[in-house]
């Protein structure tokens, strides 16, 4: 297992205690190295032929730095190295795992694919970002409704997705969903 991140400036830096942006500037690769305890490489160096699969985590880092979804929604652009990584694994018929908001990367890069970000309606207030499913459909992809502890496998494209924090759920349910996504990716590898 190796960890990669793009060597780019973050769109913004958030003070998570206050929930507001700061004037501070940070580099995505440097910040990712802090979280990964230094064991990380520039995404530009990733070679798909050296790996059996790729998994992208989610969160605002994806929506703000790996693509511009947080600002542009379905009209977003995808970072060139993220796009080329996804294309390389897809072309090599190697599995791609995506969780939380990162399934929008596949929806943007692979028209016609199937993904899940949970539900397409805000069921019991647990899916406040349910409109993301509609945006995915508008991109020409099929959104599959799944519970937080489940994942969806697009067998034709070898794309496995789960909603993770797109659902307001207890951490153990989110953990279970991410676990099923990882297991399904490994089965396809």
Give the arrangement of secondary structure elements.
Layout: E1 4-5, E2 13-15, E3 20-22, H1 28-35, E4 41-42, E5 54-56, H2 60-66, H3 69-72, H4 80-91, E6 96-99, H5 103-109, E7 114-115, H6 131-138, E8 142-143, E9 152-154, E10 159-162, H7 171-188
Parallel strand pairs: 1-4, 5-6, 6-10, 7-8
Antiparallel strand pairs: 2-3, 9-10
CATH homologous superfamily placement: Class I glutamine amidotransferase (GATase) domain
**What's the N-to-C terminus distance?**
13 Å
Low-confidence stretches at least 5 residues in length (pLDDT < 50)? none
State the helical fraction. 25-40%
- Computed Rg: 16 Å
- Total number of domains: 1
User: Per the principal axes of the C-alpha atoms, what is the gross shape?
Assistant: globular
CATH topology: Rossmann fold
Q: What percentage of the residues does DSSP assign to strands (E)?
A: 5-15%
The CATH architecture: 3-Layer(aba) Sandwich
Individual helix count: 7
Sheet of most strands? 4 strands, mixed
């Amino acid at each position: 297992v190796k960890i990669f991140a793009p060597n780019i400036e973050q769109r913004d830096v958030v003070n998570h205690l206050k929930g507001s942006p700061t004037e501070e500037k940070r580099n995505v690769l440097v910040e990712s190295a802090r979280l990964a305890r230094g064991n990380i490489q520039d995404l530009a160096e990733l070679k798909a032929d050296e790996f059996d699969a790729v998994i992208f985590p989610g969160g605002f880092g994806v929506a703000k730095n790996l693509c511009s979804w947080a600002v542009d929604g379905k009209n977003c652009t995808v970072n060139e190295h993220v796009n080329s990584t996804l294309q390389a694994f897809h072309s090599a018929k190697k599995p791609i795992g995506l969780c939380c908001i990162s399934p929008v990367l596949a929806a943007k890069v692979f028209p016609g694919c199937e993904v899940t970000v949970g539900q397409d309606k805000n069921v019991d207030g647990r899916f406040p970002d349910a409109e993301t499913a509609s945006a995915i459909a508008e991109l020409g992809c099929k959104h599959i409704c799944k519970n937080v502890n489940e994942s969806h496998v697009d067998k034709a494209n070898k794309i496995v997705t789960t909603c993770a924090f797109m659902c307001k759920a207890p951490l153990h349910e989110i953990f279970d969903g991410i676990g099923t996504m990882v297991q399904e990716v490994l089965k396809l590898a």
